[in-house]
Amino acid sequence: MKKIIFLLIDSFMPTILEDCVRHRTVPGLKFLMDRGRYWANCATVFPTMTASVDSSLVTGTYPDVHRIPGLIWYDPEQQEIVNYINGWNCVRKLGLGKCAKHVLYNLNEKHLSAHVTTVFEELSRRGKTSASINAIVHRSVKRHMIKLPALMNMMSGLQFRKSSISGPETMTLGSLVQSDILQDIPRPMQGYEEMCGINDDFAKHATKILIQSEKQPDFTLVYFPDNDHEMHKKNPAHAEEALIRVDQHIQDILYAFGSWEEAVKQCIFIVTGDHGQTRIGNEERFNIDLDRLLESFRVLQLGEKIGRHDVVVCNNERMAYLYPLQADIQPKLIEQLLSEPRIDIIAWKEQREVAVREGGSGRKMYFRRNGPFTDIYGSEWTVVGEESVLDLKIKEGIIHYGDYPDALARLYGALYSQDIPMIAITARPRYEFKSRYFPMHMNGGSHGSLHKYDSIIPLIVTGTDHAVQEPPRLVDLKQFILELCDKESNC
Ligand SMILES: [Zn+2]
């Protein structure tokens, strides 16, 4: 029975992978590509932010089903902005305790819909074991104690003392959650993230220990975050060094089997990313200042309590959700957004439809589920208006996607992730949304949008001939993993 190792690399992009392969600088990834199959056109979900994407990967559903709208979103029941941690300035404004509670506890225990199952839960039902190494979405059958470092414990109001979260049989969230078998992982004590062990080095060590312990679970999901951090700082055109470092970790994991050949003989390897990144221009005008654009509205500011506000803005880098709080405010907001030509797409719900307009030109189209057209993924749609707004090409009843891969299901999934009025906006390539306290990436990289730069990820599958649904999508990988496990000979 072959075990599965799933390597999830944050901000893994096919263009950078292919440059590195050409330069012969990523021998580990090249080996897995040569021994297996490679796709350069895997589509991820929208918003292209780790929290919503990982929820889709692990549940095999879009946000309208798993109910995690993005990294930053507004919770109308609690009347608060949910932030799964996107930089210290925001966290300070919202409170470390609240943000830590959202990412460590609420994401898996409360926000992720109880009506979906995770890949870990499904494997457990089938009598298979699994491990989650530093992945942020990990809900499953076993409780794991949270152990915060003393300072963080105090700063977060001691709320995690004696708290536990659910996960598969084996899991780590850096040093915050560590299964017994993974207690002895060396970690450099510098910087906050390094201290907590949410980094590639920790993930590599944990994976090697599992392989060498002879207790490697049937399925292991390993999350590598460092590539994302480096790509935000440098721009994606200069991000090869970051992927070279990831490749060195992958080589170490392959060596843990004795030889690379032995690794692919014993295991199925699946390697993919969560989203891409887009290069951001190196001048102020490449920041679309939402506070300024919406200055005629009463916008809820971070740290404020909801009162007589018009709108809540949740900035997800190259996309944002706007939540109108008053009945008549939505049309006025849309009118104001349309006046900004640096905004690419403005979309909102209308009955069971989605209305889409382009910033500046105001060109419009509508779409809804079911109808005369079928897209290349087999979903049926009705599309009315100028389909070029989403760069769709409809030929003989088939919808083909251009610059916005899987645009209809992804946009629908985001807008129906909550049952309240919400507007989704995206920035054109080279631009990013600016909000007070939020991190900016001028001359660096950023993501969040529907555009292919943020949305296309590589996919490598090695060690099995089992058919992958094509064109590949991240949302279909859970099903692929379960099929591998159901085929007794493959897992
Ligand atoms: Zn990122």
Description:
The chain is of the alpha/beta class and 491 residues long. It is built from 18 helices and 24 strands. The strands form 6 sheets. Strands 13, 14, 15, 16, 17, 18, 19, 20 and 21 form a 9-stranded mixed sheet that branches. Strands 2-24-10-1-9-5-8 form a 7-stranded mixed sheet, with helices on both faces. The longest helix has 16 residues, at 96-111. The model has no long low-confidence stretch (mean pLDDT 92). The chain binds zinc ion (ZN).
Major sheet size, sense and barrel closure: 9 strands, mixed
Ligand set: zinc ion
According to DSSP, the number of beta strands is: 24
What is the gyration radius calculated from CA atoms? 22 Å
Distance between the termini: 5 Å
**Could you tell me the strand content as a percent range?**
25-35%
Morphology call: globular
> Pairing-aware structural class of the strands and helices?
alpha/beta
What integer is the average pLDDT?
Answer: 92
Unreliable sequence segments: none
Q: What's the tally of helices?
A: 18
Helix content: 25-40%
